[in-house]
Structures are given as structure tokens and as C-alpha cells.
Amino acid sequence: MTGVSLLVIELVPKRLEFVHDLLPGAGVIAGRINPKNANAGRNGAALQEAARAKGVDLRIVEAGTEGELETAFASLARLLAGALVVGADPFFNARRNQIVALAAQHSMPAIYEWREFVDAGGLISYGPSLPSVYRQMGAYVGRILGGEKPADLPVVQPTLFELVVNLKTAKALGLAVPPSILARADDVIE
User: Fold this and answer.
1) Number of domains composing the chain
2) Which residues touch 68 (CB under 8 Å, ≥6 apart)?
3) Would strands 110-112 and 57-62 be described as parallel, antiparallel, or unpaired?
4) What is the pTM of this model?
5) What CATH number has the domain bearing residue 28?
6) How far, in Å, CA of 164 to CA of 162, rounded?
7) Which domain holds residue 33?
């Protein structure tokens, strides 16, 4: 096996921790998973394990189509969810603006994997820096084009991670972001 790992599953507990620290009074936290994703089971299991470790009541909400996104957001109120952890998924990434708009429409604090969600108006994100990952991928391709055999190259992992907070969104949601999160943030959008 060779390539660049994005640590999609491995960072789930950290995202749950950040949203729990942001909203310690949230009795229920929902996890958004795309059931069509090959990693859906592992992602859900990682969320469940992280929730148990934090003593959080977690409800998994699945969405794999555009229509299911809207239905899933509407179900969050019935579940009494106080926050949402959006799973890493190409389907969700491609619908970033729709997901951020639905979170705002339903007044749902949400954490995402990529800062691009926060740049689009989302509340908070924690994950690898995509520009840094793209540089790693480019260097990797350069090594292969330079004659190295892919089978001889190790799997590399991101080295730069970003915690990004959108204070405009926090204000719109009526949330005060704890100083402990702001102190750890790599970027704060005001």
C-alpha cells in the first residue's frame, strides 16, 4: 500500500471533542454519515467510540442524497441534537454550501473536517490543511515520476492540521466560543 492518508477516521474523536468543548451542555450530539461511503461503518464506529469516551449521547443521522440532507437536518430537532459532527465524505464536500446553509437555517452548531466549510460560513472545523496535503501529494507524484517505485514508497500522513472558528457564525447562533478553543485555533474568522 502506498499513497497519502488524510486520517479521515482517526480525527473523528478530536472533532467530537472540540464540538463537546464548544457546547458542553449539548445533551445529544448528532453524527452525519453518508451510508453510501465505503468508510461509513468505520466512521460511525469511531464516532460512537469517541462519544462513549466523552459520555455523550450520540445519534447517527444518515444522508446520501440531496433530498436526504434536508430531511436529516429536519430530524435533528426531533432528536434534540444540540450539535452536529459532519463526517468526512466527498458527497458532503461537494455540497458544502448547501450543508452550511441548512445548518444556519436550522440553527445547528456543526463541526466539519475541512476549513472550506468554515470559509463558506460554517461554525468550526478541524482537519488536515488541504494545501499542505496537496503539496505532499505533488511531492509524492514527483518521486514516482523521478523513477521511484510506488510499492517502495510508504504511506505518508498530513503534518499540518487546522482548527478554524467562524465567530460571525457563532454570534449568529448565539454562542460564546470558549477561550480555550480560541487559543488553540489556527485561524479565527471575525
Assistant:
1) 1
2) 62
3) unpaired
4) 0.92
5) 3.40.50.2300
6) 6
7) 7-126+163-189
